[in-house]
Each structure stands twice: as structure tokens, then as C-alpha cells.
Design goal:
Blueprint lengths: L9 E5 L3 H12 L4 E5 L2 E5 L10 E6 L13 E3 L4 H8 L5 E10 L3 E7 L5 E6 L2
Helix pairs in contact: 1-2
């Protein structure tokens, strides 16, 4: 892998109900997700500027996407205020599994939650 490339190019969080999952993530992160159907999949996309070298991703509902607590661990950006995001999770239909926890001064903080679909997702923030 070229040192200038990202290790992560794209991510998909498997969901069984795209409308419910989209509402959960829009509520928790205070964002708007665009929806699209393609190749037999229903998708909702996290905001990203791929032209600036930022990784994009979204939610995906299809026969091949099965939500799981044992799937790939995705760390979503919780800057600038992880506490504000964590405070919305339970009322949006999720469950906080790991509170905001310091990794190191240099790396920042992490937390973990279960989303509305049963996926275990992680958060990362600098502060």
C-alpha cells in the first residue's frame, strides 16, 4: 500500500431497516444522509468530501448485508463533542456499551455503542 493512500477507502454498516437506521444516525450525529437504491441495495450515505481525500461510507440494506455485533469495528468521528453524541444514542434507539474512555493524550478518546440495527460501532474524538 502506498504511504499516501488511506487504509480505508469506503465502509458500509449493514442494516435490516434502512429508514430506522438512517433516522438513528441522523439523530445521533445531527447530520442529513442522502438515500439511493443501486445494484439491489438500499443505501444512505454519511456526509464526506471524497475530493479532499476523506473516506466515505454509508448504511446498506440488502440480502448480503447482515447486521452483526461480530462484524468489522468501525470508528466514527465524534469530534468536536463525543459527549453530545453519546447523550443521543439511547433516545434514538441504541445503547451505549462503553462510555467515553481516554486512550492516550496523543490519540484521544473512544467509546462504543450498539446502533438501532444491533451493530457494535465505536467512536473516536480528540477531546
Amino acid at each position: 500500500m502506498d504511504a499516501a493512500t488511506n487504509a480505508l477507502n469506503w465502509f458500509e454498516i449493514s442494516v435490516s431497516d434502512i429508514a430506522r437506521a438512517k433516522k438513528f444516525y441522523e439523530t445521533v450525529f445531527s447530520i442529513k444522509m442522502d438515500e439511493q437504491e443501486m445494484m439491489g441495495m438500499k443505501m444512505a450515505f454519511f456526509p464526506a468530501d471524497s475530493m479532499q481525500g476523506k473516506v466515505g461510507g454509508g448504511l446498506a440494506e440488502s440480502p448480503y448485508h447482515k447486521p452483526s455485533a461480530d462484524g468489522v469495528k468501525v470508528y466514527l468521528n465524534a469530534n468536536p463533542d463525543m459527549e453530545a453524541i453519546l447523550a443521543k444514542i439511547e433516545s434514538a434507539g441504541g445503547q451505549v456499551m462503553m462510555p467515553k474512555t481516554k486512550i492516550t493524550d496523543e490519540i484521544g478518546y473512544m467509546a462504543g455503542f450498539v446502533d438501532s440495527e444491533g451493530n457494535h460501532i465505536a467512536l473516536h474524538s480528540n477531546n
